[in-house]
Structures are given as C-alpha cells and as structure tokens.
Design a protein that fits this description.
The protein is of the alpha+beta class. The protein is built from four helices and seven strands. The strands form three sheets. Strands 2-3-4 form a three-stranded antiparallel sheet, with no helix packed on it. A two-stranded antiparallel ribbon has the order 1-5.
C-alpha cells in the first residue's frame, strides 16, 4: 500500500495495512510526526521494481523470466553497459573522503555504501 507515488512505509500493521511509525520517544503511532532521524520510515525500498518483476513473471512465466535473465550479455552489450556505468563510477570515486569513506552528514549510510559498491562491482565484473 503506497503512501505516496513510489513511496511506502517501512512498517505496516498486519490485517489493516496501515503504516506504523514510532516517535522519537519510541511510542508506536500511526502518524509520521516526531519521527527519530536515525531511521528511514518512508522510501521507495525497491518496491516498484519488485512489482515490475512480479508482473513480468506473471506475463512471461517464471521460467521464461529466469531464462531471460540468465542469458549472458554479448561483448557489445557488456561494453555498452560498462560505458553507461562510467559516470556513476567516477562520481562514486570522487565522493570518497580522504579516509576512503562515503559520508553523508558526517556518517556512513548503508544505502549509499551499497549503491556505490554495487556500481563499482558491476563495472569491475564487466571490465573483466
């Protein structure tokens, strides 16, 4: 149950699908007021891509979808994908601080780390 376009709550009440939150004093509530700032309560969380994957599996069939995803890329496709990743790789490298960390507001955020490491890993895999 999205709360806005491409935005879902992190937690929902079972049986009602009402978004659940907790306040900065850790009281369980149904409103998104007075939320702690150290935790993500709303976001895209990859739900839209999961919905697309589900719809693709329903349309093409799960086995066909798996087979399509298992097909290896051609050398031309790999080169094109590698070129497409180059700006993101450069941005990730440029964003490292002097200690080799990706920081936002003075702290390491898991989502930034995962995004950048995924980009770098894919690029290195494609580069062979």
């Amino acid at each position: 149950v999205p709360i806005r376009p491409n935005t879902w709550a992190r937690f929902y009440e079972l049986g009602t699908n009402r978004p659940l939150y907790f306040t900065s004093s850790y009281e369980l509530v149904y409103t998104d007021h007075d939320l702690p700032t150290h935790y993500s309560f709303q976001g895209s969380y990859g739900v839209a891509s999961m919905i697309r994957d589900y719809q693709e599996a329903r349309r093409a069939g799960l086995e066909e979808m798996r087979a399509r995803r298992a097909r290896p890329m051609t050398p031309e496709q790999k080169a094109a994908r590698r070129r497409a990743l180059e700006p993101r790789v450069a941005a990730a490298i440029a964003a490292l601080d002097e200690d080799g960390r990706w920081l936002r507001n003075g702290r390491i955020e898991c989502s930034i780390f995962v995004t950048n490491m995924t980009t770098l890993s894919e690029y290195l895999e494609l580069a062979g």
